[in-house]
Amino acid sequence: MAQQSSTAALQSLALQLGVTLLVSTAMVPVSAAWALGALLGGGLAIAGNLLVVMLVFRNYRAADPGALTTRMMGAELARLVLVAAGFALVFVSVEEPAVFPLLGSFLVVHLLPVWWMHRVSDQAMKR
Prior knowledge:
mainly alpha
């Protein structure tokens, strides 16, 4: 992974972790179950996004777009399996999980990289 792309990916993952911890901490006064749901949902999103980053950007070569596309599709399928297994594990092991914060935090944290990468690329275009 090139230095600039690795820095942006690591910043994005750190942002996801920070938001997950912030949201789950903010849910503590509401309910411990909501805080746990937010933490688990954000954690599942982070795990999926980390898996994609590791699979797509290891030994990255821009000169071979076919291989990169295949890796991207494989990484997305791996993320899907990981997230589905994670949600299944949560629903099996947590008695009465708080579904709204679980899915809400997953969605917010999962979509943060889209916003972050847009922000990073927008700043790069202004230079």
